[in-house]
Structures are given as C-alpha cells and as structure tokens.
Amino acid sequence: MTTLSNDPVSALAHTNIALIKYWGKKDERLIIPYTSSLSLTLDQFYTETSVRFDQSLSADKVEIDGAAVSGKSWQRVHDFLTVVRQLAGINAAAEVISLNHVPIAAGLASSASAFAALAAAASKAAGLQLTSTDLSRLARRGSGSACRSIFGGFVEWQRGHDDTDSYAFPLQQTGLKDISVIALTVESKPKSISSREGMNRSVTTSPYYPTWVNVAQNDLVDIKLAIVTNDFTKFGTISELNAMRMHALTLSAAPDFMYFNSETLTAMNLVKRLRHQGIECYYTIDAGPNVKVICQQANKPQIVGAFTKLLGPKRVTTLQAGPGVQYL
Ligand code: PMV
To answer: Phi then psi for 211, rounded to 5 degrees?
Structure first.
C-alpha cells in the first residue's frame, strides 16, 4: 500500500489537433487503435486539474468548470481513477477539480487535454512516479487522443498491439516550424454523436474501414516526410485529405451520420477559395462541425481577416504549437 499525502496535485495539459486522425478502436476497453495518428499540441486551449486522494471520502467527487458532475461524466472519471488506484495499489476515493480554459463559446473543450491533465495529477497524487511514456499509456485509457497531449509540438501515437506498446511520443526531427492554426467556432454545442459511438459505427458498418487502415498508414508516412523536409504544401494537402478520408467513414456507415453543418461547408469552401487565390491554407475537422485552418505566418492576417468577416471576431482564434503536460 502506498502512503498517501492528502495534498492535492495539480497538472495542466493542452489540447491537440490531429492531422492524421485516430478513428476506430481495436480494443474498446484498453483503447488500442486500429491505426497510428499524428497531432500538433496547441498553445491556448488547456485544462487544469487537481486531484487529492482521501481515505475519509466515501466516493469520488468530481467538479468540472465549477459544477459538481454526476451520471456518465462522473462514471468516466471514476473508471479512470479506478485504473490509477489499481496501478498504485490504493483504495481511497478522490476529489477532482478541473477547469477548462477555452475562449467563451469556442466549443473546443476536449477530452484530450482533460484526460492528459487528469492522468498526470491523479497518478502523482496516488504516489506513482511514471515516465512520460507510461503517463501517455495511462492517459490513453481515459481518451485515446489524450495520450498525445502529454507531449508538446508534433506528436505521433503509435498504435501498438496492446497496453504496453500503444503510446505517443514527440517527433524528434521537425524541419517544419512555421505552422499556425486558426480555430473557427462554427458551433459551441456538444456533438450529437460522440467520437466513441461514431468510431464504433464506422468500424462495424463502413465497407471502407479496411481501406482506411491502409490509407491512414500511408498518410502518416507521407506527412512525417513533409514535416522533416519542411514541405508545407505537402503537409497541408495530406492533412486535409486525411480528414476527409476520416469523414468519408461516417458518410459510408449504416446508418450514416455527418459531423458537418452548413457553416462547416461554407468555411471549407472559403479555404478552397483562398487557396485558389494563392493564399495557401488547408482545413481539418474532428468529430464535430468546427473547422481548423492550417497556414503559415505570412498568410495568417489575410486568412484571419477573411474568416472574421464571415464569422465575426469572437469565433476566430489563432493558435500555435503548444507544450506538453506540466505540474503546477
Ligand atoms: O480521443 P477521442 O475519443 O476524443 O477521439 C478523438 C477523435 C478525433 O478527434 C476525431 C481524431 C483524433 O485523432 O483526435
């Protein structure tokens, strides 16, 4: 048994945007993906979480953004804490206090930063001293994409075969440094089909799923080459294609579903129009209607200007590469 101090441990983790998407679990319980993925950790959206284990608590207490949580959200945190307790050999309940720092109504709060911060804070509060690889493996158990938010900059999640070798690591060779991301808030409501359900339906019903597994692997090889050789055009082209290939799985599932709304399509068209005019930019979209535009510094003012005109300034946020998880 570990001796617990009752002091809270706090950690901060940033969210990340996948450029080669993770979409589909081979193992639902351990969250082992069918494919490897690659992301960029971002510098502005983050989660701060503190955890304290306390023998005198009768059950886990979870507060998110100032409100006590119950139901499904509580269960998810509780299940994750149970994994931590098993690893540490403790049985105390915990108090978790979590704050998401995202621009008002950005609709970009993410389970990636949430579970990366929770993994770091909870493991340390439980007396575990994990390497960053083991922290990544642990964060993966909360939410797949969280394993990438342990690290800053460009991060690869190698799919692995089981719990021991499915984890993320930062890319060592990164020739490509000039990258900006413009986050467009098309909608701030939570998505109607969770990524968990969306992935499951895609894996089990889309006839294109086996093709995705091959294509995503090739996309990953190509994008890593583009990053090493500082080829922004290739980098952006592959990111955009890979995102559309992921969304093709939702369109080809049964029953089919779609994360885009009409404003998503308008934003995608504007990216294409700007590109046609020689202002180089690309889009990527996760499991929701919001769009992220990838560009380089020189073109940023014009692109921000065009989207501010379309959506208003509150719905356009510019981001850069951000750091990995930190203790506070
Ligand atoms: O980690 P989850 O379960 O929130 O799934 C993330 C899925 C995508 O954001 C669409 C892709 C990715 O790789 O982050």
So the answer is: -65, -40
The DSSP letter of residue 101 is E
Average pLDDT, the chain: 95
Mutate to test the pocket of ligand 1, among 17, 21, 155 (most ligand atoms within 8 A of CB): 21
Backbone angles phi, psi at 33, to 5 degrees: -85, 160
Q: Tens digits of per-residue pLDDT, 223-236? A: 999 999 999 999 99
pLDDT digits (tens, 9 = 90+) for 56-109: 999 999 999 999 999 999 999 999 999 999 999 999 999 999 999 976 445 566
What's the gap in Å between 3 CA and the centre of ligand 1? Answer: 36
Q: How far is the CA of 267 from the centre of ligand 1 (A)?
A: 21
Residue positions counted in the chain? 328
Pairing of strands 32-33, 25-27: antiparallel
- Give me ligand 1 centre to Cα 196, in Å: 9
How far apart, in whole angstroms, are the C-alpha atoms of residue 195 and residue 214? 21
Angle among Cα 231, 19, 324 to the nearest 5 degrees reads 100
Counting Cα atoms < 13 Å in the Cβ hemisphere of 122 gives 34
Q: Give the angle 180-186-188 at the CA atoms, nearest 5°.
A: 105
